[in-house]
Amino acid sequence: MVNIVHKFGGSSLSSAERYQAVANIILAHTEAGDCVVVSAAGKTTNTLVKLWQSYQQSDQQAVSDILLQLDNHQRTLIEQLLSPTARYAALNMLEQELALIAQQAQQQSLQEAALLAHGEVWSARLLATYLQQLGLAANDVDARQLFTLNDGQLLHQKNQQACAQLISANSINVVTGFIAADCQANTVTLGRNGSDYSATLLGSYCNAQQVSIWTDTQGVFSTDPRKVKKAIKYSKVCRGQANLLARLGNPVLHAKTLSPLKNTDIKLVVRSSYETEASATEIVKEGYSKAKRFITTLENIDLLRIDQLRGGEIGELSQLIQHSLHHFIENGDTYLLVPASATHQVVSHLQGRANIIESNLHGCAVVAPSNDVAQLFEQATQVLTEQSLTPRFSHQDADYILLLTDQSIDSDVLTLLHDKLINKGQELAIIVAGLGNVGEVFIEQLSQQLNRLQHHFSVKLVGLLRSRAMLFSPSGIALEQWQSQWQNEAIDYQQDDLLTRISELDYEHKVVIDITASEAFSELYPAFVNLDCHLISANKYAGTANNDWYQSLRRNLAERNLLWRYNTSVGAGLPINFALADLQNSGDSITHIEGVFSGTLSWLCSSYDGSVPFSDLVLQAQQMGYTEPDPREDLSGRDMQRKLLILARELGLTLELDDIALTPLMPEQLAQGDWQSFLDNKQLLDDFIAEKAADAAKDNKVLRYTGALTIAEGKVTAKVGLAYATQGDALANLTPGDNIFVINSQWYSDNALVIQGPGAGKEVTAAGVHSDLYWLIQNLK
Ligand SMILES: NC(=O)c1ccc[n+]([C@@H]2O[C@H](COP(=O)([O-])OP(=O)(O)OC[C@H]3O[C@@H](n4cnc5c(N)ncnc54)[C@H](O)[C@@H]3O)[C@@H](O)[C@H]2O)c1
Ligand SMILES: N[C@@H](CCO)C(=O)O
Questions:
Q1: Quick check: 741 and 593 in contact, CB under 8 A?
Q2: What is the dihedral of CA 184, 189, 191, 197, to 10 degrees?
Q3: Ligand 1 pocket residue status of 521, Cβ below 6 Å
Q4: In the CATH scheme, what is the homologous superfamily, with its name and number, of domain 576-760?
Q5: Which has fewest Cβ within 10 Å: 53, 73, 123, 363?
Q6: pLDDT by residue (tens digit) across 170-203?
Q7: What residues contact 660, with CB distance under 8 A and at least 6 apart?
Q8: What residues does CATH 3.30.2130.10 cover in the chain?
């Protein structure tokens, strides 16, 4: 089975040293069954083209000179690479082939494509022989036996069968790029950059997993890295943008190269054959990478207006001039950008339907996410005008802009444009898990918040998760339409799918915001950290997990410079964690924390006067979004126990949950069974509370549920449970739903520091999550 198709261009094979470097790459990156597509070595194709031109001009002397030049180049490669036995056979074969070309030239029977094909045939044969010499099973394959075209159209079925028959599963198949055959077995060529196209065709016919284009650049950059030092190399580029760039003349990839990959899962990777350790650019399917910004320059372009462009005509024209072409519609007219050298051919092919509107233009195209296009259009026009390069023609489309000028854009102007238009890192991708009470409000508030944050940082919501379905959109989910996008695009997922999608996000920073109440989800935190995600949690499970797990998570975060914030897990939006951290960072030491840390239990106890059954109040609290998904988590005291543990760990204590004594606010037996069985037995709760309230009332007290943590002489005691508060006390007067934190420390010993306010509710909690997000961004800057 073909796993990877590798492709090496002419510059990667320009000398014996380069062949050796390629062989080393093959040794390290291929296994039996893989294919290696090669172009002609160095400038061999150009030399063969010159030979053809001299032949057409009947310049016999030039033909002989060029043949000698080819002989010298190939001979040097063979002599430097092959052992004496292999060398003898290779030189013999080369001699015969060159003699045949000379003979055909004399007999006036040379064929252009067959002549050009020699370059690739020589490369494939030499590389395969050299690999054998290194002990690898390798064979050369002439692509004219693999790819057949009829009338310019590839015969896919026939070609697929040929590949299945001729590509060996037991050796490295070194395949000639650029060439194919017609139905009469005549050689045809696949056009400019044909070897890249050969590689993707072969990949699709063989159902390969990946096509790797090894080239002399390191990948796809935001602009030409030779002209702009600060050009950004992108690790991922979507096929749509790569295609558009190719049509606009960007030289890294050609539109044709991408076409065989349409509707396949084959990965396309562009990487450097010179710096093999450098990271590569992966061209991924739509939706698997965020849209990026690029500037590509245009040189010597003519602008044609075309009447009645027919379907498929652009393809025909590209084939004719062997160049990717781009057309667009402006005010109802169809325009075509044509390299000036090919205008004549295009105009005559279109027989009176093409008018040259502007000729000899230069300029640039800026490819960008659609939301950014309008702003970039203004900025780019301004930069060019300031540089006295006022555009002669401009066009704004859905995902790019085109600015055509009289003079070419030199590297100084390109650098100015790049500085102004291209993001320089600092992007944060947000994944939100849990779209319940708090999650929904958080997303509603996010759009307003992002407008503010965008001034400092580029922040995008890229993922939404419920327990079974997920929605990922690497370029950003439209916040105004997230619900309809969810309805239409969310898909079921397994844990591995989620981790894969997160790993594919090509952002400088990622944060998973956990607004679930799921312990299972919190168990994924170590996996998120391994994928370099920051964490924000409203969920309390990770913060209260056993100490070994918790400490190991903290260590992993620290090792990777990642941040974790979970302020809302205690006191919702109240700044309790800020206060504790601040006191400790200022040198204070906390001795005692006491109070009511549950919005639900605060509201229930303060609202209860016996007139409404307690269980009815529980259902109301649930409706108001105060309770945990299962309110028994609150009634059992467990939720408050978790909060006290989180506070204790903020103080640097290494308690476990069960180190905090707990007395529940419900009869033990109600903890068993599902929610319905609780409802069936709610009378037990009502009787339990009525009894406790009556007991408290005997001393003119009221029911409250409180927690306390004391550190005295190195000893820690902590508990949560029912308390009777004296009428008129701060605790008895607590506003229903409010939390209160009474903090004693070295500095606040007699007169405690008190923090009080709403401790639950979807709005305040969502606002608290935003505060954590803001804090994170401040710390990333
Ligand atoms: N409600 C509050 O006032 C408040 C205050 C502070 C903290 N919190 C915490 O915020 C969290 C959410 O509270 P809520 O009131 O919004 O709860 P909720 O039950 O309304 O929402 C939780 C959501 O998480 C989803 N979910 C469950 N498991 C998931 C998984 N594995 N992956 C993705 N999504 C999953 C559920 O489908 C649900 O939509 C809880 O941990 C809670 O303790 C809530
Ligand atoms: N159920 C929790 C939510 C806030 O953590 C409470 O009532 O306090």
A1: yes
A2: 90
A3: yes
A4: Dihydrodipicolinate Reductase; domain 2 (3.30.360.10)
A5: 53
A6: 999 999 999 999 999 999 999 877 899 999 999 9
A7: 641, 644, 645, 648, 707, 709, 718, 719, 720
A8: 294-421
Give the model confidence (pLDDT) of 522-573 as tens digits.
999 999 999 989 999 999 999 999 999 999 999 999 988 899 999 999 999 9
Q: Could you tell me the distance, in angstroms and rounded to a whole number, from the CA of residue 625 to the centre of ligand 1?
A: 10
Beta carbons within 8 Å of 162's beta carbon, 6+ residues apart: 145, 146, 147, 148
Task: Read off the pLDDT of residues 288-334 as tens digits, 9 standing for 90 and up.
Answer: 888 999 999 999 999 999 999 998 899 889 888 878 899 999 999 99
Which of the two residues, 2 and 701, has the higher pLDDT score? 701
Ligand 1 atom 39 nearest Cα: 436
Whole-Å CA distances, 636 to 625, 642, 734: 18, 11, 21
Nearest ligand atom owner, CA of 541? 1
Q: How far is CA 277 from CA 5, 18, 92, 210, 389, in A?
A: 19, 16, 38, 18, 40
Nearest CA to ligand 1 atom 6: 572
- Provide CATH 3.30.360.10 ranges for the chain: 576-760
Confidence class of residue 453 from pLDDT cuts 50, 70 and 90? confident
In sequence order, what are the residues at sequence separation of 6 or more whose Cβ sits closer than 8 angstroms to the Cβ of residue 596?
602, 704, 705, 706, 707, 731, 734, 738, 739, 740, 759
The number of the ligand nearest the C-alpha atom of 603 reads: 2
Alpha carbon distance 179, 357 (integer Å): 36
Work out the angle between the directed axes of helices 112-133 and 84-106 (0-180°, nearest 10).
180
Q: Report d(CA 42, CA 469) in Å as an integer.
A: 52
Span 427-571+769-780 CATH architecture:
3-Layer(aba) Sandwich (3.40)
Per DSSP, which regions of 28-147 are E strands? 35-38, 138-141
Q: Quick one: tokens of 616? A: 């009815």
Inter-residue contact 770 to 609 (CB < 8 Å): no
Instruction: Look at residue 250 in the predicted model and tell me its pLDDT.
Output: 85
How far apart (Å, rounded) are the C-alpha atoms in residues 7 and 18?
A: 14
Cα 564 to ligand 1 centre (Å): 18
**Which is the CATH superfamily of the domain at 4-216?**
Acetylglutamate kinase-like (3.40.1160.10)
Region for 658 from its dihedrals, namely left if φ exceeds 0, alpha if ψ lies in -120 to 50, beta otherwise: alpha
Please give the class, per CATH, of domain 294-421.
alpha beta
374-391 per-position pLDDT tens digit:
999 999 999 999 999 999
pLDDT of residue 288: 87
**Which part of the chain is CATH 3.40.50.720?**
427-571+769-780
Q: What is the pLDDT of residue 450?
A: 85
Contact 119, 83 (CB under 8 A): no
CA 594, CA 453: separation in Å to the nearest integer?
A: 36
Q: Does 626 contact ligand 2 (Cβ within 6 A)?
A: yes
CA 731, CA 702: separation in Å to the nearest integer? Answer: 9
Residue 433, ligand 1, Cβ within 6 A:
yes
Q: Which residues of the chain form CATH 3.40.1160.10?
A: 4-216
